[in-house]
From TrEMBL:
It comes from Polypedilum vanderplanki (Sleeping chironomid midge). GO terms for cellular component: extracellular region. Residues 1-19 form the signal peptide. It is found in: Secreted. Keywords: Secreted, Signal. GO terms for molecular function: odorant binding. Its main location: secreted. Belongs to the PBP/GOBP family. SMART domains: PhBP. This is Odorant binding protein.
Length: 135
């Protein structure tokens, strides 16, 4: 439970939707994603520490979280939602578009792999512009 609480603070430091502004709702999403994917505490720890997630379950947890944020749906990247989320992390409009334009070049037939690659791209591209983009 401590892993989930800390994970939520890091991952959802800025709310994405009205539902995610509620800490109880955020806790439920993370818990549900952890349980539905079979992700371990070690997987959650790697996500929190921005370390490479190397298990299928951990990568699928990224996918579950991305789906909850509306960034990915059915294995498809939703660019407009990603821009909105990036702006909510504090990136100005023009920077958010640049970050998401770069990350939208990523593709993978496996939704879990796609979401993991996107999460790392958001982080790396955000860093180029001086913004910490969540995951």
């Amino acid at each position: 439970m401590k892993f989930i609480s800390a994970f939520l603070v890091v991952l959802f430091s800025v709310a994405f939707t009205n539902a995610l502004k509620d800490p109880a709702a955020m806790m439920k999403i993370a818990k549900d994603c952890k349980e539905s994917t079979g992700a371990s505490d070690a997987d959650v720890g790697k996500i929190m520490s921005h370390s490479e997630v190397d298990t299928k379950e951990g990568k699928c947890m990224f996918n579950c979280l991305m789906e909850a944020m509306g960034v990915v749906k059915g294995g498809q990247f939703i660019k407009e939602s990603a821009i909105k989320c990036t702006k909510e992390f504090g990136a100005p409009d023009d920077v958010a578009v640049k970050i998401i334009d770069e990350c939208s070049k990523i593709s993978d037939a496996d939704p879990c792999e796609l979401s993991t690659k996107l999460a790392y791209c958001f982080k790396a591209e955000g860093k180029k512009y001086g913004h910490d983009i969540g995951i």
